[in-house]
């Protein structure tokens, strides 16, 4: 097994002459929490879209677990253990909390298109669904309709449906965005907990969250990696402070 679960080599994306991601060499170590930060428009979402195949790179390679996956299709990527939360695992708003997790579990088992088929099959997944809901603090809300959950709980449910796919590499897209201070604390603790046996790559604007969670931080600015390392190191970096125009002082 290589030290890095994910590596990009010279990853580049050009949109009609505009280079949004330029020669990015990202190295994400197995079993770590790695954060991708940077000012608005730095290229973070584009990097995520390249990693999950929503976009094709203009140049460069993506290596996952030692294999070149640059030309794999989006659906393939999830089967190989890379799951992006809040997208592939989107929650069905009118299903109950428990049913959402059951559908995700079935997807993992490969018969997602037959989920209406038999109550017995559904029941067999119940135990695992409840374990996952318990893990994200939603056991008491299992029978609630998902759309009616409070915002922080919806995001916890999204994490549960992502975990149901048992990803080796979990990509989290701004997991605390729009949350109350209390929910930010809860989601931070939850991410720490689920990171125990997997690797997490996250885009996150909240530097407090990044500081408390990330083992390694890559700072993107104008499509390029400006600095990389642990929070203490990166937050002292002059170029990083300048790129954030003071917000890195926070
Ligand atoms: N499909 C596209 N066509 C043209 N330009 C694009 C496209 N997608 C992104 N861009 C440009 O690429 C740059 C990087 O955008 P991206 O969304 O990756 O940044 P970001 O770091 O995720 O920003 P934010 O923090 O605001 O979400 C921006 O200047 C954006 O306008």
TrEMBL record:
GO terms for cellular component: plasma membrane. Keywords: ATP-binding, Nucleotide-binding, Transport. Gene3D superfamilies: P-loop containing nucleotide triphosphate hydrolases. The keyword Ribosomal protein does not apply. Residues 6-247 form the ABC transporter domain. One of its GO terms (molecular function) is ATP hydrolysis activity. PANTHER family: ABC TRANSPORTER ATP-BINDING PROTEIN (PTHR45772:SF3), CONSERVED COMPONENT OF ABC TRANSPORTER FOR NATURAL AMINO ACIDS-RELATED (PTHR45772). This is Amino acid/amide ABC transporter ATP-binding protein 1, HAAT family (TC 3.A.1.4.-). It comes from Modicisalibacter muralis.
